[in-house]
Amino acid sequence: MAVILGIESSCDETSASVCINGKVINNEIANQTIHEQYGGVVPELASREHQRNIVPVVQHVLDNAGINASELDGIAYTRGPGLLGALLIGSSFAKSMAASLDIPLIPIHHMKAHVLAHFIDDPKPKYPFICLTVSGGHTQILRVNSPTEMIILGQTKDDAVGEAFDKAAKLLGLPYPGGPMIDKLAKEGDPLKFEFAESEMPELDYSFSGIKTSILYFLRKEMKLNENFIRENINDLAASIQHTLISMLMNKLIKAAEMEDIKQIAIAGGVSANSGLRNALNNEATNRSWEVFIPDFQYCTDNAGMIAISGHLLYEKQAFGKLSDSPLPRMPF
After folding, report:
1. 3-116+299-316 adopts what CATH topology?
2. Is the peptide bond before 177 cis (omega within 30 degrees of 0)?
3. Helices (H), ranges, 66-160
4. Residues facing 13 on adjacent strands
C-alpha cells in the first residue's frame, strides 16, 4: 500500500491531497480571491498567498485522512509548467518535507496530471485514449498510451481556448474569471445569433488569436451604432462566442478520433467544466458511438487530487525525482 501526498501550486490555487493505494481520499483547495480586483493573476501576490496557505492546507488533508506524516511513502508536487514563484513555494515545501521523512519525491507535469485525473474515479478510460486538454494556458489533443507516454497530436499555436474565453469576457465587460460567466449567460442566449471568424490551421492544430480580433472589431462596429448593444445582447453574445469556440474544439477532436481510430474520448483541464463543451461532447458520443470520460468538476480546475493520483501511478513505476530538480515554468511536454 502506497500513501502519497500531492501538492499543487502552479498558479493561484494552493491545493493538497492524500492518495492511499490509488484512491484519492480528499482534495483541499485554498482559492485566491485577491486577483479578482486586477482582472487576472498577479504572480507576486500568488506566491505570497501560497506561502501563507501551504502549511495549513497540507496539515488539514493529513488530519482529514487520518494520516501522520511519518506514514507517507512519497510526495508528489507540480514541477511545471506554471508561475515560477508559485512553483517554488510548492516544490520547496515538498522537497523539505520529503528530505526530512527520507521518502521519494515525485515531480509531476501539470498538464499530464490533468489527463491522469480521469483515473481518480470510475469509470476509467482504457489505453489508448484521446484526450482534449483545455485550460487557461494550454489547448492540446493527445493520444494517451500510458501514464508516461502521451503523444501531442495537435495544439494551439498562440492563445489557449481558456484565454480566448477570458479575453472575450473582458471585451463584454464581465468580471474575471470570465469563462464561467460566459458559460452561465450562454444558457439564456441564442448560439446562432452572431457569427465570428474562425482561424484555420493545418492538421489538428488550433489558433484562437483571430477569433478575439473578430469579436473586438464586431463589438466596436455595433457599439458605434448602439452604445447599449452589449448590454442589450449580452446573453446572445455569450452564447454565440461559446458556440464558436466549442465548434473549433470539437471539429479537431472529431478529426483526431477518426485519424487514430479511437472511440475512448476524454476532456480535461479547467475549460472541461464548461457545460456547453460537455453537452457537445456527449452529443458527439451518441452520434459516433464514443465512450466519453469527463472528470468531476472539482478535478477540472487546478487541484492536488490530480497530482496525488499522478504521483501514485508514477510511484508504481518508481519515476522519482531529485532534490536538485528545479521548477520549470515552461516545462516541456
Report:
1. Nucleotidyltransferase; domain 5 (3.30.420)
2. yes
3. 84-101, 110-116
4. 31
Q: What is the pLDDT of residues 26-81, one digit of tens each?
A: 998 876 555 565 566 677 677 888 788 999 999 999 999 999 999 999 999 999 99
In angstroms, the CA 191 to CA 235 distance is 9
Nearest to 138 by CA among 118, 109, 117: 109
Strand ranges across the sheet with 139-146: 149-155, 139-146, 129-134, 264-268, 291-293
* Rounded-to-integer distance, Cα 286 and Cα 22, Å: 31
Cα(230)–Cα(232) distance, rounded to whole angstroms?
5
Say how far apart CA 267 and CA 281 lie, in whole Å.
Answer: 9
* DSSP E strands, 171-244: none
Can you state the angle between helices 178-186 and 234-260, rounded to 10 degrees? 100
Tell me the one-letter amino acid at 151.
Answer: I
Query: Whose grid coordinates read 520549470?
Result: 328
The answer to whether the Cα torsion of 314, 330, 83, 212 is positive or negative is negative
CATH class of 125-294: alpha beta
* Cell 478520433 belongs to residue: 257
With CA atoms as reference, report the closest residue to 150 among 158, 142, 138: 142
**pLDDT tens profile 162-196:** 989 999 999 999 987 788 999 999 999 999 999 99
Number of H helices, E strands in the chain: 10, 11
Sign, CA dihedral 317-321-327-328, equals: negative
Which helix (DSSP H) or strand (DSSP E) does residue 117 occupy? Answer: none
Which H or E run includes 249?
Answer: helix 234-260
